[in-house]
Every structure is written in C-alpha cells, then in structure tokens.
C-alpha cells in the first residue's frame, strides 16, 4: 500500500514538485514550515501542503518523512526529526533522506535517526525538479529501501541500489561531479568566448563536435542563478568523500570555485512556483555583466 500521508521537509524547488505530484495522485502532504522563509511558506500554500503546528505533530501524522533541503541542513533536519519522532513515540516511521549528501553524512544520519527507532533510507534524486514525472529518478538504498518503491504509485520513478545505508549518496556524489563539472566548465569557457566576441561561433562549434551536449546542460546553467551555492557545496562533499576513502579529487575544487563565484554574484531570485526563469543567453549575459571570471571580481570576492 502506498504511503497515505507524506511529510516533506521542506517545500523548496524540489519539494514543491514532489508535493504537486503526490497531491495530484491523492496523497496528503504535510510539512513543518513555521521557521522557514516566506518563499518556502508561500510555495507550500501554492502546492496545497498543510503545515503542522510542530515537528512532533508531523512525526505523529506522517507514514513517511522525506528530507529535501539543502545538503548543509540535512543532518540538522534529521536530528530534529529524530528528536520529534522520539517525542511522538513513532517507531515505524520511515525517514528518507533524498539530499545530495556525502556517504559519511548519510551514515551519521542513519545513526542519529535509528537511535530514535526511525527507519532510515538513504536516497538521492537524479534529474531536475520539474521532471519528477518525466524521467527524473529517485534512488534508494538500505535495508528498508524497497518501501520507497511505493512512491511509484504516485507517478515517481524509484530504483533501489542495494542494502547499504549510504550507497545512494555515494552514487549521487559521483553523478553530481559530472553534471556540476559540465556546468562549471561550460560557464568558464563561455565567459571567455563572450569576452573574445566569439560566443555564437563557439556554441555552434561545440554543437557540431558534441551534438546536443550544451543544450542538455543549458537549463542547469540557468538554474545556477538560484542554485550555484548549493551546487558548490556538493563539490565540497565530493572532495570530502574522496578524502574519506583515501583518494584526492583534483577537479572538484576548481568546479567548486567557479560555482562559488556565481553564488557570490548575489543574483539569486527564487520563485514561489518553483520555476526557473531566463534562458542560456540571458544567463550568460547576466553573469558577464556582473563580472564573472574577471580578475577584478575574483579579487574582490577573495578579499571579503
Ligand atoms: N532542484 C533540483 O532540480 C534538484 C535536482 C536534484 C536533486 N535536488 C536535491 O534536492 C534538495 C533540495 O534542492 P532544492 O533545489 O529544492 O533547493 P531549494 O529550492 O534551495 O530549497 C531548499 C529548501 O530547504 C529549506 N531549508 C533550508 N535549510 C533548512 C533547515 N535547516 N530546515 C528545514 N528546511 C530547510 C529551504 O527553506 P528556506 O526557504 O527557509 O531557506 C527550502 O525550502 C537538495 O539536496 C538537492 O541536492 C534538487
């Protein structure tokens, strides 16, 4: 039987699209957003998500709680849910962490929530928020991972990777390195092409050499206007994961710097409908006008 009441922490861009789909297929979607930003609260309202009065109430009511926050908040949110689930005396609750976190963070979250008797499932999402019913895939791992397959009943695509409590996070780390790497590399090179007055020519040449590649990455580059900071954090997770396993990531620090420079432009505009605005050319123009990759801009960021 599919979960009937699903708690989502929080209704960000991804949470909004989950909520819309789950609600459209009959699930009750809950959240706790009293301490969240007005944008998140409005998104919850727009998606018809009910905000409970407390986290304890959320844990008492939901059959499943999904964490889709920013990776840096994943452990904090898990600890709060563990405490609230303990207070609500919920032993059979499933906690699904779908954030892009390192396998080490996933293991820590597993320990924290298991101590409260909550069943932890590690997860990740591959694909963009607006494509949750059009090709995006939710991966799950851990002893209880097969329970997440029930979300298939709501039009979400779910795959189980295995029984390890951090396999899904490890999978996302190496996948994210490719997507963020392509975004960072394209932005860096296209800023140069713009400076040399060769933007249209190089885009045409890239497409002749690698048909469809830039087009595929374009909407993620537009998404950098909102998500560059979070994606830079993911590159930090990649480095820490490699270090944990006795390896060194050499590309990730560079990608992190490019994405971090975009976040420093402070052009982040969030949408209450979880939608992305702008196209590739507008986004490149915006980055260029803000001095992205210029020595002056990089020096001023370094001195902050
Ligand atoms: N967006 C995508 O297309 C996409 C694709 C694949 C995977 N993901 C994964 O989905 C997750 C969320 O991404 P997103 O794009 O939805 O990010 P987002 O739009 O920035 O939303 C993040 C949400 O988390 C909330 N949040 C932040 N700190 C919190 C805390 N301490 N406690 C509770 N809630 C907190 C934010 O609330 P405030 O507004 O109050 O800050 C916001 O509602 C990430 O782990 C990401 O890797 C996203």
How does this model look, in words?
The chain has 304 residues and is an alpha/beta fold. The chain has two domains: 5-164, Rossmann fold; 170-299, Orthogonal Bundle (N-(1-d-carboxylethyl)-l-norvaline Dehydrogenase, domain 2). The chain is built from eleven helices and eight strands. The mean pLDDT is 94. Bound molecules: NADP nicotinamide-adenine-dinucleotide phosphate.
Task: Give me a quick take on this structure.
This protein has about 300 residues and is of the alpha/beta class. It is built from eleven helices and eight strands. It is globular.
Keywords for this structure?
N-(1-d-carboxylethyl)-l-norvaline Dehydrogenase, domain 2, single chain, 304 residues, 11 helices, binds NADP nicotinamide-adenine-dinucleotide phosphate, alpha/beta, 2 domains, 8 strands
């Amino acid at each position: 039987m599919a979960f009937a009441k699903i708690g989502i922490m929080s209704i960000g861009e991804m949470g909004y699209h989950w909520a819309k789909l789950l609600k459209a297929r009959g699930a009750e979607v809950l959240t706790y957003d009293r301490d969240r930003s007005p944008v998140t609260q409005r998104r919850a309202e727009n998606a018809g998500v009910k905000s409970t009065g407390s986290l304890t109430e959320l844990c008492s009511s939901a059959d499943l709680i999904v964490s889709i926050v920013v990776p840096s908040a994943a452990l904090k949110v898990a600890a709060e849910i563990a405490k609230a689930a303990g207070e609500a005396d919920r032993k059979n609750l499933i906690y699904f962490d779908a954030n892009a976190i390192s396998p080490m963070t996933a293991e820590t979250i597993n320990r924290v929530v298991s101590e409260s008797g909550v069943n932890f499932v590690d997860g990740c999402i591959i694909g963009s928020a607006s494509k949750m019913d059009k090709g995006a895939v939710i991966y799950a791992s851990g002893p209880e991972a097969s329970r997440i397959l029930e979300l298939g009943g709501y039009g979400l695509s779910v795959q189980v990777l295995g029984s390890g409590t951090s396999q899904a996070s490890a999978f996302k780390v190496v996948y994210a390195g490719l997507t963020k790497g392509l975004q960072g590399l394209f932005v860096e090179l296209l800023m140069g092409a713009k400076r040399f007055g060769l933007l249209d020519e190089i885009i045409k040449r890239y497409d002749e050499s690698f048909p469809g590649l830039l087009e595929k990455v374009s909407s993620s580059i537009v998404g950098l206007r909102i998500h560059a900071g979070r994606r830079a954090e993911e590159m930090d997770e990649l480095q820490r994961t490699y270090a944990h396993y006795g390896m060194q990531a050499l590309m990730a620090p560079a990608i992190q710097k490019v994405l971090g420079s975009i976040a420093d432009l402070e052009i982040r505009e969030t949408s209450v409908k979880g939608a992305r605005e702008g196209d590739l050319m507008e986004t490149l123009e915006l980055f260029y006008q803000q001095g992205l990759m210029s020595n002056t801009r990089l020096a001023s960021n370094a001195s902050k």
